[in-house]
Amino acid sequence: MSIFRFKKFSLSHDRSTMKIGTDAVLLSALTEVGDAQSVLDVGCGCGVIAFCLAQQLAHTQTHPVICGIDTDANSVTEARQNAVAFPLIPANSFQFIQGRVQDLAAVSQPRTFDLIVSNPPFYGHDLKPAQEKRLRSKHRDHQLPFEELLQSVLKLLKEEGRFALILPPVEGAQFHALTEGLLHCRKRVFIQPTAKKPVHRVIQEYCREDVPCTERHLVIRNEQNEYTEEYRGVTKPYLL
Question: Which of 99, 156, 175, 185 is most exposed, with the fewest beta carbons within 10 Å of its own?
């Protein structure tokens, strides 16, 4: 069994479509829960983002509602098992659903959330991996087109809620173009592997209110290939 150990909890991720990685940790670390009482993780996998945000919620809410949704049955099963072992809030605070977020949003009166997060499949028409699970988790063509993700978020997000996602820069710009007139970008974080390499991920956070957008850069590793002090500081609540 493959176990990833955080400071305050551990997660199994051997059966999930995508293993725990830097993207999920950074999205969790750079998304503040604030006064949110309900969270939805779209494409939850083993639940890593949901559980990292649950660690934040444990300080602010007695009975938060944390939902995750994924089309992969093994990922959802593993997330449910991780919820039982999670030590910081009761297991009944979590609900992990096998299915499509499009279907969750299509009901006549869908449940709405204070905070929606996603590390979505992002590649569109590039060379695709041979393994079917990797295809589903990394490519959006048939699983979760950006247009459908956005429309689902608009239906599931509370009026004063926030939506955060992490994407490569080209795909981030594509998604951002779709939000014009619908959502406003309130925060953007540009992530570089090293100072000499280009931005390879962008975290974008949206809301319905027209507010100024704050921007920052974060470099993961220095010239010695060690984690930068900024990266260590950002991920300190989670990583050993």
Answer: 99
